[in-house]
Structure formats: C-alpha cells, structure tokens
Amino acid sequence: MNELMEKVDVLLSELDKQECVVEIKKLNNELLMNKELLDLIKEYRVTGNEEIKNKIISDEIYSKYKHYENEVNFLILNIRSKLKVINDKKGCIK
What is the DSSP string of 65-76? Predict the structure, then answer.
C-alpha cells in the first residue's frame, strides 16, 4: 500500500509540472480576481442573455482558461486510457 501511495505522490508531482496544469491554476486565480467577469458570469447564469455570453467568451483570460481546461481534460482522458490498459477491464467498475 505504501508503494501505491508513493506512486500516486509521484504522479501528482508530475501533473503539477505539466504546462496546462500550471497555466490553468494561474488563470483560475486571475479569473477569481476579475470581479467584472465574475459579475457577468453570475448575471448570465440568471438571465441566459446571449449578449452577456458573448462578452464572457470574448474575454481574453476566459478564452485562455477554456483552452487550458480542454488541455487538462485531454490529459485526464490519456491517463484514464492508460489505466484501462493496466487494469485490463472494460466498462465502469463498481
């Protein structure tokens, strides 16, 4: 069990070094500091106004964040596919 925990720690350390993870953490902090954008997001959630959505999407920080979010999702998919090969299981495991 200790060996598994050590390998998980190594994996987490390697993930923290990935460019997409580093960037998304940085951009997440920038987004949280952008009160104007957060207010627009809150307003969009309530109204669903397409004009507000376009303002949000056109924000440079938000666009970069979404790009790196996709990169992180691809990284997750890659890890899952490798774990599936290791486990040699098909479908969801309960």
Answer: HHHHHHHHHHHH
37 CB contacts (<8 Å, ≥6 apart)?
A: 31, 56, 59, 61, 62
CB atoms within 10 A of CB 40: 18
Q: What gap in Å lies between CA 81 and CA 85, rounded to an integer?
A: 6
DSSP-assigned letter for residue 88: T
Structure tokens at 30: 């920038």
Please tell me the pTM assigned to this model: 0.76
- The string of DSSP codes covering 21-65 is HHHHHHHHHHHHH-HHHHHHHHHHHHH--HHHHHHHHH-HHHHHH
**The dihedral of CA 25, 29, 34, 40: what is its sign?**
positive
Summarize pLDDT for 63-90 with one digit per residue, the tens: 999 999 999 999 999 988 888 887 776 6
